[in-house]
Specification:
The chain is an alpha/beta fold. The protein has 7 helices and 10 strands. Helix 3 runs parallel beside helix 4 and helix 4 runs parallel beside helix 7.
Length: 294
């Protein structure tokens, strides 16, 4: 029940990779007008309280009720609900292109919930190699970013090792996670992250890290000396180029050990299109009930 929805095609783990290879039988939908279509669905609704109690007793969920991604207050994740549907097509004109993806197993780790940094770094390297990106095109990275004291530093270290350390000195990749805004939607989290990445690439927008106030000390150590990684705390705009296709990556790591990374590219040759979402503005507010007032 706790799988990574970024696997992109229900019950067909290889569908996304097959679409990249232009195999006509790859999609879940029948072939139409020369296009191969595959639909990815992420869905999570929660009605059973016993699961929440079990997760809390196991120390997995946040006592503060937030995913403090990359923040020093990270103490577990906050649960969310989500419904996402995404259509993948081969042979059709599109602004957003699936440039490359990889699905792996994180192998041996210290415990059931402990991540394997080496496996994550290998995963990102494989996905980037399949994407074969032009140097300087990577602009966004959507973290799995659950907001745990162990998971966030491991993921940031993997990102530095496999992506950020190889970039030019003038390159900047905006790093963040939507979980800080909407919580961890668990089975649909990968598709939710893919949706935010798509919106960011479509609108040349970099999302903010909503709960970031003071950087996690261990995560800060993994980022020390790395000038390519940027953790924005306010929404911003990406640099545009008529010649360079901007790209981004998104990660999702399942409870069972399934880890996934996909690289999405905005086709620079397509005409300027309408953004998927309106321009976003964010304002932080304090509410009295959160400050202990009656």
């Amino acid at each position: 029940w706790y799988e990574s929805a970024l696997r992109l095609a229900p019950r067909h783990r290889g569908a996304a990779h097959n679409l990249e290879l232009a195999r006509a039988d790859a999609g879940l939908a029948p072939k139409a007008s020369g296009d191969v279509t595959s639909t990815a669905l992420g869905l999570l609704r929660r009605f059973e309280r016993h699961e929440a109690e079990w997760l809390a007793l196991a120390g997995m969920t946040s006592a503060l009720g937030r995913c403090h991604t990359m923040d020093h207050r990270a103490d577990g994740y906050a649960r969310g609900e989500g419904v996402v549907a995404i259509t993948l097509m081969h042979g059709a004109a599109a602004t957003l292109l699936l440039a490359g993806s990889a699905v792996q197993q994180d192998g041996q780790s210290a415990s059931l919930t402990a991540p394997n940094g080496h496996a994550q770094a290998d995963l990102l390297s494989i996905a980037r190699a399949r994407a074969d990106l032009v140097a300087g095109s990577m602009a966004l990275n959507e973290l799995h970013g659950t907001g745990t004291a162990l998971g966030d530093p491991v993921e940031s270290g993997s990102l530095v090792k496999s992506v950020l350390s190889s970039l030019a000195a003038d390159a900047h990749v905006c790093v963040g996670s939507l979980k800080a805004n909407v919580g961890h939607t668990e089975a649909s989290a990968g598709a939710v992250g893919l949706l935010r990445l798509g919106c960011g690439l479509e609108g040349y927008a970099a999302g903010l890290n909503a709960q970031l106030r003071v950087l996690n000390r261990v995560a800060a150590g993994t980022l020390r000396g790395c000038v390519a990684g940027v953790l924005p705390t306010q929404a911003g705009m990406l640099r545009r180029s008529e010649k360079l296709a901007v790209a981004g990556g998104v990660s999702s790591f399942g409870f069972s050990g399934t880890i996934v990374h996909a690289v999405v590219q905005r086709d620079a040759s397509t005409a300027e299109s309408i953004s998927l979402v309106a321009a976003l503005s964010h304002r932080r507010r304090s509410f009295t009930w959160r400050n202990g007032a009656a």
